[in-house]
Amino acid sequence: MAFMGHHLKIDDFDTWKSLFDADPVGRKQAAKGHIMPRGVDNPNEVFTRVEFDSVEDAKSFRDRLVASGVLDGATVLTPPTVAELVDVLARRSRWSVGAHRPPYVTGSLSECGARGFDSAGHSLRKANRPNVRARSDQRTAAIDGYT
Q: CA-CA to 19 of 20 to 30 Å: which in 36, 47, 76, 101?
């Protein structure tokens, strides 16, 4: 599993996000998913991490991204960089299982064993399986000390 990440400073997040969503470089065809945190102190700083099946796919996408000129409209604080996954620590929390997830959780989290989420943030793995969801919520509550 490989990732391409970069850190940008942009003038207008909404304008930049609409360009990102338009996908002029073909990210959706090549990538498994992405995450996009924004700076707390400066919301015009964006950190993007895109997940790929292989280092070769990530490098190919990075090269297309740089050649496209799409980044010319932003201040590049950390250039597009390819990294390979070497270790994962999946910490269990109240958000790790259950019916309600934060709406900002999207993309592929396969390195943590997740199966994906619908647009409301609910796990697709547990969809239409309320008995499994209830047991998972009970286990999480017990682990977190709520029972």
A: 101
